[in-house]
Amino acid sequence: MDGGCACGAVRYRLSDTPMVVHCCHCTRCQTETGSAFVINAVIEHDRVELLAGVPEPVLTPSDSGRGQEVFRCPTCRVALWSHYSVPTAAFVRVGTLDAPGALPPDVHIFTRSKLLWVRLPEGAKAYDGFYADPGEVWSAEARVRWKVLVGG
Ligand SMILES: [Zn+2]
Ligand SMILES: [Zn+2]
Predict the structure, then answer these.
(1) pTM to 2 decimals?
(2) How far is the CA of 127 from the centre of ligand 1 (A)?
(3) What DSSP line would sit under 112-143, residue for residue?
(4) Smallest-distance ligand from the CA of 109
(5) What is the per-residue burial (b if ≥16 Cβ within 10 Å, else e) of 96-105?
(6) What is the whole-number distance in angstroms between the Cα of residue 81 and the centre of ligand 1?
(7) How far is the CA of 119 from the centre of ligand 1 (A)?
(8) Which residue, 9, 12, 29, 138, is CA-closest to 76?
(9) What residues sit around ligand 1, an ion, with C-beta below 5 angstroms?
(10) Which residue, 57, 114, 123, 142, shows the most beta carbons closer than 10 Å to its own?
(11) Ligand nearest to the Cα of 56, by number
């Protein structure tokens, strides 16, 4: 799966399927994207292969207070992925993929601030805030990959 920024200076390839895909309706994601929600594919950062360009980290406020690094194209400044508390995990902005429809969300989070006109698909997994039990959302295989990633 390939993707890139708006100007084409940065191109990347996901060399594996993501562990999980979040659709986040929190107010910060709304502010950052200027839209209703963000779709993030969570994947090991070393499985995001750069084909062209080098995204630049921009420190952006986060609710934890530690901030998150949002990696943006140095030219057009489109956000491609970010790192939260785990620097080896990339949260790839699914909308930057050439075929974003290939990665529908596994879960909707922070639906307490979901815009009223956004209707979730019938049967979609949804949580008011963040889910407490990853076992409800992540596959067993993905949880093993996460454990390896955080060195647990
Ligand atoms: Zn660009
Ligand atoms: Zn969010």
Answers:
(1) 0.95
(2) 33
(3) GG--TT--PPTT--B-SSS-S-GGGTS-HHHH
(4) 2
(5) bbeeeeebeb
(6) 13
(7) 31
(8) 9
(9) 5, 7, 9, 73, 75-76
(10) 114
(11) 1
- Cβ(28)–Cβ(46) under 8 Å? no
Supply the DSSP string of 37-49, one letter for each residue: -EEEEEEEGGGEE
Q: What is the pLDDT of residues 14-39, one digit of tens each?
A: 999 999 999 999 999 999 999 999 99
How far apart are the CA of 90 and the centre of ligand 2, in A? 14
Identity of the residue numbered 141: E
User: Residues 21, 92: contact at Cβ < 8 Å?
Assistant: no
What pLDDT, on a 0 to 100 scale, did the predictor assign at position 63? 77
Query: Ligand 2: distance of its center to the CA of 96 in Å?
Result: 17
Residues of the chain predicted below pLDDT 70:
152
Residue whose C-alpha is closest to residue 38's, from 131, 102, 110, 122: 110
**Ligand 2 centroid distance, CA of 30 (Å):** 7
**Tokens (6 digits) for 119:** 């209707």
Distances in Å between the alpha carbon of 115 and those of 30, 33, 135, 148?
A: 10, 14, 27, 36
User: Residue 32: nearest ligand to its CA?
Assistant: 2
